[in-house]
Specification:
Mean pLDDT: 90
Number of domains: 2
Number of strands: 8
Low-confidence stretches: none
Number of helices: 11
Strand content: 5-15%
Structural class: alpha/beta
Strand order of the largest sheet: 4-5-6-7-8
Radius of gyration: 22 Å
Length: about 260
C-alpha cells in the first residue's frame, strides 16, 4: 500500500494525483491524504508530497481538456472544502483521486460525476456542494465597510476556502474599487487593487485595529442601517429560529446589524 501525504490545497492534492500516476503503482494500492495519519499501518509506505504548481497545472489542464470545465470546477470546489462540526475532510484527497481515476478509466467525466452510487463520487459531490453553498450564502451576507483610507473591507469566518470564488464575483461587480476580504479562520486575505485582478496573501501581519477605523461616511451609513433594522422590528413577531434560518448564526457575527443588536 502507498499513501501520499499532500498539502491541504488544490495544488497539493493535484500534485499528489500527478505523483501517484507517475509512480505507476496499482490503483487499488494507492491512497491520498491531507495530513499524517494518527495510526500508521505496518505494511503501508507513506510518501510525503511536495506541492509543485507545474505538476498541479498539468493535471488541471488534463482534467479541463478531457472532461471539461464543469468536471474541473467540481474537483476544485471539493478540494476547497474544510472541516465542519462533526465531520472531517481528511478523506477528500482520496475521494478526489478515486473520482479522477474513474473518469480516466471511463473516458467520460460527466458520466462519472453522475455515478453517485460510487462512494468516492458521492463524497466529492458532498464536498463540492458544501463549498458552493457557503460561497453562495456569503455572496448575499457579506458586508463591506469603508475604511479611513478608502479601502472596502470585509471580515468573514467561513468553514470552507471560498475566497477564490468570492474574488471572481466581486472583482466583476466592483472592478474599480480597492477592496479586501479577510478570512479570519485561515488568516488569509483576498486583495483587489482597483482595475486589476485579485490575489490571495497571508494575513498574519494584518493590522486588525486599522480595519476598525471607518470613514465618516461609513459610520453614518452604519448608524442609518442599524436604525432602520431596529425600526422595522415588531417585538410581538420576533422569531429567532426563522431569523437564524435566513441568516445562520455563524454569519451573524460578521453583519453590522447583529453586532449592534
Amino acid at each position: 500500500m502507498y499513501t501520499y501525504i499532500c498539502e491541504n490545497s488544490i495544488d497539493g492534492i493535484l500534485t499528489g494525483v500527478y505523483c501517484a500516476y507517475a509512480d505507476r503503482h496499482p490503483r487499488r494500492d494507492i491512497h491520498l491524504t491531507i495530513q499524517q495519519p494518527d495510526n500508521m499501518s505496518l505494511f503501508t509506505q507513506y510518501i510525503p508530497v511536495e506541492t509543485d504548481t507545474v505538476k498541479a497545472a498539468r493535471v488541471a489542464h488534463t482534467l479541463k481538456t478531457r472532461f471539461g470545465q464543469d468536471f474541473y470546477e467540481t474537483i476544485y470546489q471539493a478540494a476547497m472544502s474544510g472541516d465542519v462540526p462533526g465531520k472531517s475532510t481528511m478523506d477528500k484527497a482520496d475521494a478526489i483521486y478515486e473520482t479522477i481515476a474513474l473518469a480516466l478509466f471511463s473516458g467520460n467525466g460527466t458520466k462519472t460525476l453522475l455515478s453517485l452510487g460510487e462512494p468516492c463520487v458521492y463524497r466529492v459531490f458532498e464536498l463540492c456542494r458544501a463549498t458552493g453553498r457557503e460561497a453562495m450564502h456569503l455572496l448575499g451576507f457579506i458586508r463591506f465597510q469603508e475604511l479611513e483610507n478608502g479601502i472596502l473591507f470585509s471580515e468573514i469566518h467561513p468553514n470552507h476556502h471560498v475566497l477564490p470564488m468570492l474574488g471572481e464575483h466581486f472583482s466583476d461587480r466592483l472592478p474599480e474599487e480597492n477592496f479586501m476580504i479577510y478570512d479570519a479562520n485561515r488568516d488569509l486575505a483576498l486583495l483587489h487593487p482597483a482595475g486589476e485582478h485579485f490575489f490571495l496573501a497571508d494575513a498574519d501581519t494584518l493590522n486588525l485595529s486599522a480595519t476598525r477605523q471607518f470613514s465618516a461616511n461609513e459610520k453614518q451609513f452604519q448608524d442609518l442601517w442599524v436604525t432602520f433594522f431596529h425600526s422595522i422590528t415588531i417585538d410581538a413577531r420576533k422569531n429567532p429560529d426563522l431569523q437564524s434560518q435566513m441568516i445562520p448564526k455563524r454569519f451573524q457575527r460578521d453583519t453590522v446589524e447583529f453586532q449592534a443588536s
